[in-house]
Amino acid sequence: MIFYLEENRIFVLETENTHYVFGIDSAGYNRHLHWGAKCDPADYAFTEIGDENSNHSMLDEYRQELTPFGSTVYRTCDLKAQFADGCREVALRYTGYRLEDDTLRVAFADAYYPLQVRLGYRVYPGLDIIKRWVEVENTGSAPISFERLFSAGFSLPGMDPYTFENTNGAWGGEFLPCRTVLDGGNLVYESHRGASNHNQSPYFIAHRGATETRGAVYFGSLAYSGNFKVIAGRDLYGITRVSLGMNDFDFSHTLEPGAHLETPPVYCGKTEGLGEMSRQMNRFCLEHLLPSRFRAETLPVLYNSWEATEFNVNVADQTRLAEIAAGIGVELFVMDDGWFGARNNDRAGLGDWFVNPAKFPGGLDELIGNVNALGMDFGLWVEPEMVNVNSHLYQAHPDWTIEIPGKPHAEGRNQRILDLTRREVQDYIIETMTNVFSSAEISYVKWDMNRTFTDYYSGALPPERQGEVAHRYVLGLYRCMRELTARFPDILFEGCSAGGNRFDLGILSYFPQIWASDDTDALCRAEIQTGYSYGYPMSVVSAHVSACPNHQTLRVTPLETRFAVAAFGICGYECNFCDLSREDFAAVKAQIALYKQWREVLQKGRFYRGRTF
Ligand code: DGJ
């Protein structure tokens, strides 16, 4: 519930166990007042600006919901714009609010220039989660350029230093937790890689020595799949603030007259203990964020062919694997990379989304017919955002990639990124994927994306708008995902980006599960999956039992251990079933039966971490 106290211009966002309170002072500034236990809002009051001077700026000490750059504010800002005459200061003053059910928009206008800014808030019954976002609108007759446009600013209660938790990972070692006590200056977590990335995470978790069960925990997670930035700072008065949103690194966005832009949302909350934070986020994802078609569904046990056959797929070998998989209890058989174009290795084929006739003379239908006859659904791997130079698509449209004309291109896995800022490229992806997905009985799609960004440049944008490439790419990607998930509502999509290079609430708004890591070693995975569990439900973390010795680490682990770890996510299998001994076959069969018996609890239950790393 959200209510407004007219007399002292205070907004109260009431969640299940907390109050989040801010107001508008007599000068028209937004002022954060409280985030924590429920209190009597009548007690809240502002100190009004006194004798303002730039050496000890009162304005600079304010706790605000969003801090624009300008005047005597020297702390980290959340919004920086440039107007047509070159002015780069924004002077926001309150103009009104709109409250509709659980959604509040508080409006501000620049006192001197034609810019409107609305702060959006939404609460969810029964939960301690708040959604926040920012809308900007150019109400004038000349363009306005944004150099920074974050989604939210937070002021954390009290004066003592907070501990911040984030991740410090890499390919094959995603989401490894890291902790820093912030007692002064700024702490930054960010991505420059065009995706929400293997390294650091688009969220903040802040506490003062909280455990799983005790201590106040403040957190906020950005639902965005591109470059992000989290800045936490503690000033000389002991106030800790956090800002997060799209990264302002290599960023600009110009709004034409009459145009508006909405930032990606942040989902934030305050809980008692880290365990309750995870459970709040888990429930929020399962009840509100994931695609509605799959929220209540338990997800199938799948077999994925990648580690068994890599690019060497053909109808006979895949059918052989499918026969064993069906006998073991697998419900969904997934053929990974290698089925299309000239895709015999990673140097060719991406972009040519037609079935390779030498590998599948009867098209996909023959294999899918075999799989369905064995009582399993069929799933397929695609990587729609990419192209190999060695492909028909690149030969036909060399201008469709993100690359800087006249400069050598940095290669990554021998592939280039299609320029999704272009409408015609988005349309191509939507139509070619529609053809693939409707060409046969396809129940599941693994949507991969195997390289990070370099050479940020779009031939479709003028020089002054090149800073828009990274964000426009994400908008283009979301359009493709929105359109394809609407056209194919019953297909279960799994996100993937060379493992967990793009694991965030933005992807999860479209795809209900994500491949967590190419490192399937059980010991590594236990740590990686623990990292994921802080921000995401275990029911979105895709986890497979793979071969032994492990392909990435060469470690030998018992089959039982590999299952015990995979069972805490969406359990699947990826080892070569043709290599299974009679004992292992029986053991895997028993594991799958056990998982099916308990998967409602494992996938949808309340998650409690025991010993942590
Ligand atoms: C990277 C993924 O993470 C793997 O699981 C596999 O799908 C390969 N790509 C295929 O190229």
How are the SSEs placed, and which strands pair?
Layout: E1 2-5, E2 10-14, E3 18-24, E4 30-37, H1 58-61, E5 79-82, E6 92-100, E7 103-110, E8 115-123, E9 129-138, E10 144-156, E11 162-167, E12 177-182, E13 185-190, E14 203-207, E15 216-222, E16 228-234, E17 240-246, E18 253-255, E19 260-262, E20 266-272, H2 274-289, H3 292-295, E21 302-304, H4 306-309, H5 315-328, E22 332-335, H6 363-373, E23 377-382, E24 386-387, H7 392-396, E25 416-417, H8 423-438, E26 444-447, H9 469-487, E27 492-495, H10 505-508, E28 513-515, H11 522-533, E29 541-545, H12 559-566, E30 570-573, H13 582-604
Parallel strand pairs: 21-22, 21-30, 22-23, 23-26, 26-27, 27-28, 28-29, 29-30
Antiparallel strand pairs: 1-2, 2-3, 3-4, 5-10, 6-7, 7-8, 8-9, 9-19, 9-20, 10-17, 10-18, 11-12, 11-14, 13-16, 14-15, 15-20, 16-17, 24-25
This protein binds (2R,3S,4R,5S)-2-(hydroxymethyl)piperidine-3,4,5-triol.
Describe, in short, the structure shown.
With 613 residues, the chain is of the alpha+beta class. It has 13 helices and 30 strands. The longest helix has 23 residues, at 582-604.
Structural class comes to alpha+beta
Shape: globular
In angstroms, what is the radius of gyration?
25 Å
- Count helical runs: 13
Please explain how this structure is put together.
With 613 residues, the protein is an alpha+beta fold. Strands 6, 7, 8, 9, 11, 12, 14, 15, 19 and 20 form a ten-stranded antiparallel beta sheet that branches. The protein has an eight-stranded parallel barrel with strand order 21-22-23-26-27-28-29-30, surrounded by five helices. Strands 5, 10, 13, 16, 17 and 18 form a six-stranded antiparallel beta sheet that branches. Helix 5 runs parallel beside helix 6, helix 8 (423-438) runs parallel beside helix 9 and helix 11 packs parallel to helix 12 (559-566). The protein starts with a strand and ends in a 9-residue tail after the last helix. The model has no long low-confidence stretch (mean pLDDT 96).
